[in-house]
Design goal:
Blueprint (H helix, E strand, L loop, with lengths): L1 E7 L6 H13 L4 E6 L14 H12 L5 E3 L12 H11 L5 E7 H4 L8 H7 L1 E5 L9 H7 L5 E2 L5 E3 L5 E5 L8 H9 L10 H10 L10
């Protein structure tokens, strides 16, 4: 099984997340891409995060946009902080005998991977697909990758690096939408439209529940 994993706080999930997932799934011929909302993100700022039940519900609504997408609440069922290494280990327990995993993340997140729990072991469990972001410094990727000292080396394939486990790291370009969850929350708080930034089902849900409104408490 060739499976993609796209995790995030998803507060809220938006079309930028979904477009990248769809393109990578198609290009790498993945059977499914699992959207994984983080329950307690270990690297987020101190601002209050929308309750997990709402972020999970919005992600489930967004997943209806593509037959390739499914949602798992693995991190919502675990206690404590949501660590990617634990999620990858769970995938190997759920999908047997040995799934071929592709962990999708942006280059900005990847450049912080040394702060992740057991980061040296992540590459034993999954391939990594690192996506360019608007205004990102793509030329910084290779020296940073080599500085991890986990055995990566250049592959014969362009923009691909081989790991001793047999997994690879692939640097990919994708259709980039300069949309952020922060921008969406700020627009809702100021009463501005968020149409065409997020799926309509998600927009309807967050408006119904009063999410991100400064004058309402989430229902």
């Amino acid at each position: 099984m060739r499976l993609g994993i796209l995790g995030g706080t998803f507060d809220p999930i938006h079309l930028g997340h979904l477009r990248v997932a769809e393109e990578i799934g198609e290009e790498l011929e993945l059977e499914k891409i699992y959207l994984i909302p983080a329950a307690v993100p270990p690297h987020k700022e101190t601002r209050p995060i929308t309750p997990f039940r709402h972020r999970l519900a919005m992600t489930q609504l967004a997943a209806q946009e593509s037959p390739m997408f499914e949602v798992l609440d693995l991190e919502g069922r675990r206690q404590g902080l949501s660590y990617s290494i634990e999620t990858l280990r769970e995938f190997h327990k759920i999908f047997k005998p040995r799934p071929i995993l592709f962990f999708i993340l942006g280059v900005d997140a990847f450049l912080e991977i040394k702060t992740w729990k057991e980061y040296e072991k992540l590459f034993d469990y999954s391939n990594f697909v690192v996506i360019n972001r608007p205004r990102s410094q793509s030329e910084a990727l290779e020296p940073f990758l080599l500085s991890l000292n986990v055995g990566f080396d250049r592959s014969d394939k362009e923009h691909t690096y081989a790991h001793p486990s047999g997994n690879v790291l692939i640097y990919k370009e994708a259709t980039l939408m300069d949309i952020s969850s922060t921008q969406i929350r700020e627009r809702v708080a100021s009463g501005k439209t968020i149409r065409f930034l997020i799926p309509e089902r998600v927009r309807a849900y967050l408006m119904e529940k009063g999410l991100y409104r400064t004058d309402e408490s989430p229902r």
